[in-house]
Structure of Ribosomal RNA methyltransferase FtsJ domain-containing protein:
Amino acid sequence: MAGHKLEAAIKEFGVDCDGKIALDSGLSTGGFTDCLLQHGASHVYGVDVGYGQVAEKIRVHEHVSVIERTNLRHLTKLPQLVDLVTLDLSFISILVVMPAVVKVMKTDSTLITLIKPQFEARRSQVGKGGIIRDPLVHKEVLDRIISGVEQFGFRNGGWIESPLKGAEGNTEFLACFERIPMP
């Protein structure tokens, strides 16, 4: 299911995955990783704080390195810098992990992130059952996350509403960023 979300972003933003080295954080069962491989990624480093959730076909794939029990914000390096990062994170803000993400990305690289307002909004903005229905809260979260990621040296290439709802029926968004080469 998560792969369908990433598929929509790849198509909408025209992201070229062919031959790219990628980091997929929030690996879970491997939906984003599977999508990246189907679009030609040459290798995917899959990072997840959990353990034992990855689908067998992803776990044993020769072009995937599974890195479990690892919190992305504590990741300091990978065997090589990556061309593309995908984030599908829960219970942590995207902005908290960005310092680690930047360290493993090439200068000329792309970031696609699934923005989950229920994990980015203030507690007072989250309704019963963790649901956010207010479009003004969605907009505030999008603006804050996009602006925050741009502060790490990225240019926003746009965002879309996810074609699928998140857990509990929450509206989620996908945003694409290009890293701005620093002189």
